[in-house]
Amino acid sequence: MIEKDTYNTITKATEPVLHKDKNSKFFGYAFPLTNEEDIKLHLEALKKQHHSARHWCYAYQIGTETISYRANDDGEPSNSAGMPIYGQIQSYNLTNVLIVVVRYFGGVKLGVGGLISAYRTAAQLSLDAATIIEKTINIDYLITFGYKNMNTVMRVIKEKSLNIINQKLELDCNIIISVRKSEAQSVFQIFDRLYEIKIKKL
User: Fold this and answer.
1) Which residues form the Impact N-terminal domain (predicted)?
2) Is residue 1 part of a domain?
3) Which residue, 108, 134, 160, sits at the end of a domain?
4) Does residue 95 lie in a domain region?
5) What is the DSSP letter of 94?
6) What DSSP string runs through 121-137?
7) Residue 99 and residue 47 share a domain
């Protein structure tokens, strides 16, 4: 069985989408995430922008190997907002993404079923507006070697089309490479067998 080493995410934040239901307005936003600190910043920005709204419900999922997620109803009945939003992240098979749905109450209660449907639809519309891409899960290695071994190292990097993230080429050379997870073990072994060349996982 080949271990999965790709994931889907969105390329950039979407423009807001609007879903209306019985005078209530639901604005959907999708954001790519690199860390959980970003979530607070996005929420604070939306609360300033929509300061007269009633609810800012959201869900996110972050991580590739270890997944963490959260769904927040922000004052709506339990599981009527956050989980329907999170359900859309799952159905699009995404990670490293945050969806926020901002609700302006229109005076007519929608009931739990109506809320679930409205939040789910707003989340779905925001993901339909997003550009979804597949990325590879990569492992970074530090290769350390003397300058005289430069050609040997560079030959392997070229042959294997490895991605150099950082390099310091002096008498003692350091190169950081990023390798797709499914190829990481074999690349490690190639460098590990080379004389006077050290490789370690970062």
Assistant:
1) 22-125
2) no
3) 134
4) yes
5) B
6) HHHHHHHHTSPEEEEE-
7) yes
- Pair (153, 180) in one structural domain: yes
How far is the C-alpha of 96 from the C-alpha of 166, rounded, in Å? 24
Which ranges of the chain does DSSP label H, i.e. alpha helix? 37-49, 82-91, 111-128, 150-159, 181-193
Name the percent of the chain lying above pLDDT 90: 94
32, 107: one domain = yes
The encoded tokens of residue 54 equal: 């009633």
Measuring CA to CA, which residue among 17, 72, 76 is closest to residue 40? 72
The pLDDT of residue 4 is: 77
Asked whether the predicted pLDDT for residue 29 surpasses 80, the reply is: yes
Give tens-digit pLDDT for 32-59: 999 999 999 999 999 999 999 999 999 9
- Crossing angle for the helix pair 150-159 and 181-193, to the nearest 10 degrees: 150
Model confidence, pTM: 0.84
How many percent of the chain have pLDDT more than 70?
99
Per-residue pLDDT reduced to its tens digit, 65-77: 889 999 999 999 9
Is 171 a domain residue?
A: yes
Tokens of 99: 């969806």
Q: How far apart are the first and last CA of the chain?
A: 26
Q: At what angle do helices 82-91 and 111-128 cross, to 10 degrees?
A: 40
